[in-house]
């Protein structure tokens, strides 16, 4: 009997001890589990973002779209322009209801590729830089990371060629239900703006204008989103602290891991923002291939919250992807060669640089034009100034933003040659001011100047 | 004995605490994190709308469209036409850029709706009655038994603005008077661009709290709205026009969503439907 009492007392004691220990363990688990709290916060954040995101987010196929189109007249390629029908959209709507049947590599020779460039039987469309088949239209060709930047439209609606300027690889894409009849019709009627040559530079073929060529000058009423708009979009509304660094720039920080540096206010405001998000090693693992890198980068563009109406994919190097506004087929450069948004993925961080300029209201064209020199002349003058031919990666005609003196918020887009060399975009006149010897010296050591 | 009682009390209290903490761990984070915020937002927003008593048209498209920014040069187009209006007594208001006119001889408007519209069409298409009359199309949702509203049409689409409107007043089965404003010929300002889909426009209105509970979307249509006047030109932008009916008051209001950006435009007009 005595033993029985002792045994039940022992059980009671053990049970109580167990209950106390369990409650301590559970309580400690709750208090030390950040995820429990951060998950709640993250979920509500994403939900908030989703709401704002739905407002003006473009589909991937609107951002990754061909921006130039070329047709032939008397066996010479010309840049095509149609003020009424957007030829790039015609191409996209031509493949809207299509299905990709097959993608087959047909050639890998630079010589046959360059012959195809001069073949008048094809209409050519180019993306600003190479994209992957995963981002081709709305086909969602998952896992296809083969890159291309040029489309060749034949007389058939059942196939097209997709080519990679840099590697000379040519793919034959079999299609079902594609229809390029409208595109061909409009391309025939389009105005032929300047005869061109495709010249091989460091990053594929650039479009060279044979003769001096006229481009329209367009004007826009602009506005800028405020610092607080970007702070609230990128960092949220609580727990954000700010400090001013030595250069006088204000940086807003959230949890040490996320920060946003805003431009100086006043006259020296260049409207350039830098958003940095630290995530140890995570991004390197998250971005195993080109397609996911491009898609991830686009999601950061959405997150920034700029007006995406004219934003297109523009340039991609190793870990960097850049986007800019395209007006009438030409890219817009800001300040001295900045682009609207660029993302850089590092091993432990993502850096998103962006400019808050918004081309809000287009002003009717008033007949002003700008005549540009033949492209070869621009190249020659840069080479004369000591720039190395093999350092020149791309040459494009883009718009330089100039303030109009008649109105505070009015800007003019002046057509100008822009050159990508040593990994940087600058206008031709800006490159002419640079000390190219220094660039060459640094380039040969394999590091950038900045 | 007291010692035993205290031990029992401790056991029960701590068991209860354990149960509470256990439930707490299992509960909220799991359910929160399972909310699908990346995909299916379209479906969940539709569900939320339904819960808020918002009825959507069954054929609401999720397809994008294409459209332009348009511009019209501002000018006194109507005053130049006054002399050719030989069949009406017309007066021109420069401040409003509008002509008000009454027919010199009686124009009878009889029969069913179709017959009435045919008569009005014949009347407005005659340049001696209405300047630029052929450029206007009937808009039922803005009309009633006595007021027939026509909006200015262009090769790019219809323009819904007070500066591009023809209103014919019918009284006692006769055309009593009309008022017309005219924007001039419109031209694209830039190349063709893609717009958001009608569903996207409705979703923007809903997330911007521009859609009241217990309302019904009657119609969604792409048309041009006035954005601003710059350098002597009126700039028009494509908008999704959304006719929303309040289920209680039966009032219908017209809301406009910027078809490029999804922003809801500030101006809207409210009127009662009579037919």
Q: Any chance you could write out the topology, listing elements then pairs?
A:
The complex is a heterodimer of chains A (450) and B (275).
Chain A: H1 2-32, H2 34-56, H3 60-63, E1 68-73, E2 76-81, H4 87-94, E3 99-107, H5 110-117, E4 123-132, E5 147-153, E6 159-163, E7 170-176, H6 181-189, E8 191-201, E9 204-209, E10 213-216, E11 218-224, H7 227-234, E12 240-244, E13 250-254, E14 258-262, E15 272-278, H8 282-286, H9 290-304, E16 311-317, E17 320-327, E18 330-333, E19 341-345, E20 349-355, E21 357-363, E22 369-372, H10 375-384, E23 392-403, E24 410-421, E25 424-427, H11 428-433, H12 436-445
Parallel strand pairs in A: 18-23
Antiparallel strand pairs in A: 1-2, 1-4, 2-8, 3-7, 4-5, 5-6, 6-7, 8-9, 10-22, 11-21, 11-24, 12-13, 13-14, 14-15, 15-20, 16-17, 17-18, 17-19, 19-20, 23-24, 24-25
Helix pairs in contact in A: 4-6
Chain B: H1 2-26, H2 28-33, H3 41-51, E1 66-67, E2 70-73, E3 88-93, E4 98-103, H4 113-125, E5 136-138, E6 147-154, E7 157-159, E8 165-171, E9 174-181, E10 186-188, E11 193-194, H5 198-207, E12 215-230, E13 233-246, E14 252-258, E15 269-271
Antiparallel strand pairs in B: 1-11, 2-10, 2-13, 3-4, 4-9, 5-6, 6-7, 6-8, 8-9, 12-13, 13-14, 14-15
């Amino acid at each position: 009997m005595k033993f029985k009492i002792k045994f039940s007392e022992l059980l009671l004691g053990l049970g109580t001890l167990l209950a106390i220990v369990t409650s301590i363990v559970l309580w400690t688990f709750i208090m030390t589990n950040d995820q429990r709290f951060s998950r709640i916060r993250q979920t509500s954040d994403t939900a908030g973002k989703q709401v704002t995101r739905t407002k003006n987010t473009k589909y991937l196929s609107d951002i990754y779209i061909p921006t130039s189109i070329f047709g032939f007249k008397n066996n010479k390629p010309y840049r095509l322009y149609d003020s009424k029908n957007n030829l790039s959209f015609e191409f996209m709507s031509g493949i809207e209801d299509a299905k990709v049947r097959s993608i087959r590599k047909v050639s890998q020779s630079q010589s046959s590729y360059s012959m195809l460039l001069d073949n008048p039987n094809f209409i050519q469309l180019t993306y600003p830089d190479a994209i992957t088949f995963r981002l081709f239209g709305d086909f969602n060709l998952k896992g296809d990371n083969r890159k291309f930047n040029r489309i060749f439209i034949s007389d058939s609606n059942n196939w097209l060629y997709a080519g990679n300027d840099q590697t000379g690889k040519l793919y034959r894409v079999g299609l079902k239900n594609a229809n390029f009849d409208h595109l061909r019709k409009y391309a025939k009627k389009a105005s032929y703006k300047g005869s061109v040559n495709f010249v091989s530079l460091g990053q594929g073929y650039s479009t060279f204008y044979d003769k001096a060529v006229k481009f329209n000058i367009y004007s826009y009423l602009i506005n800028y989103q405020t610092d607080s708009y970007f702070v609230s979009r990128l960092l949220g509304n609580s727990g954000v602290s700010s400090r001013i660094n030595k250069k006088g720039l204000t940086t807003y920080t959230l949890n040490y891991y996320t920060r946003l540096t805003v431009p100086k206010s006043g006259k020296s405001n260049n409207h350039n923002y830098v958003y940095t998000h630290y995530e140890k090693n995570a991004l390197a693992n998250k971005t195993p291939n080109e397609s996911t890198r491009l898609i991830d980068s686009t999601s950061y563009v959405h997150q920034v919250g700029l007006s995406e109406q004219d934003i297109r994919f523009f340039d991609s190097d190793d870990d960097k992807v850049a986007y800019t506004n395209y007006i009438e087929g030409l890219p817009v450069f800001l300040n001295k060669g900045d682009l609207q948004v660029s993302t850089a993925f590092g091993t432990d961080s993502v850096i998103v640089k962006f400019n808050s300029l918004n081309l809000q209201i287009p002003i009717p064209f008033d007949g002003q034009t700008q005549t540009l020199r033949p492209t070869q002349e621009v190249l020659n003058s840069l080479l004369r100034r000591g720039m190395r031919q093999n350092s020149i990666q791309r040459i494009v005609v883009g718009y330089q933003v100039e303030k109009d003196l008649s109105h505070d918020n009015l800007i003019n887009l002046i057509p100008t040659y822009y050159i990508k060399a040593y990994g940087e975009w600058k206008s031709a006149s800006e490159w002419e001011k640079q000390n190219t010897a220094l660039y060459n010296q640094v380039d040969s050591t394999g590091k950038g100047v900045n | 004995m007291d010692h035993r009682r205290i031990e029992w009390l401790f056991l029960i209290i701590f068991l209860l605490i354990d149960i509470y903490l256990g439930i707490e761990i299992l509960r909220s984070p799991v359910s929160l994190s399972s909310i699908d915020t990346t995909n299916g937002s379209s479906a969940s927003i539709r569900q939320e709308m339904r819960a808020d008593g918002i009825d959507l048209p069954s054929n609401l498209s999720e397809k994008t469209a294409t459209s332009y920014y348009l511009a019209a040069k501002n000018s006194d187009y109507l005053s130049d036409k006054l002399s050719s209006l030989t069949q009406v007594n017309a007066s021109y208001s420069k401040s409003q850029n509008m002509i008000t006119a009454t027919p010199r001889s009686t124009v009878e408007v009889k029969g069913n709706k179709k017959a009435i519209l045919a008569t009005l069409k014949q009347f407005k298409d005659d340049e001696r009655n209405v300047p630029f009359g052929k450029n206007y199309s009937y808009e039922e949702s803005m009309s009633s038994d006595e007021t027939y509203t026509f909006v200015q049409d262009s090769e790019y689409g219809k323009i819904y603005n007070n500066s591009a409107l023809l209103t014919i007043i019918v009284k006692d089965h006769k055309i009593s008077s009309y008022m017309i404003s005219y924007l001039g010929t419109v031209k694209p300002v830039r190349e063709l661009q893609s717009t958001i889909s009608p569903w996207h426009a409705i979703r923007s209105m809903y997330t911007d709290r521009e859609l009241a509970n217990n309302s019904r979307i009657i119609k969604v249509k792409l048309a041009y709205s006035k954005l601003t006047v710059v350098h002597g030109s009126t700039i028009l932008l494509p908008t999704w026009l959304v006719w929303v009916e309040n289920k209680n008051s039966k009032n219908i209001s017209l809301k406009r969503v910027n078809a490029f950006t999804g922003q809801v435009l500030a101006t809207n007009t409210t009127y009662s439907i009579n037919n």
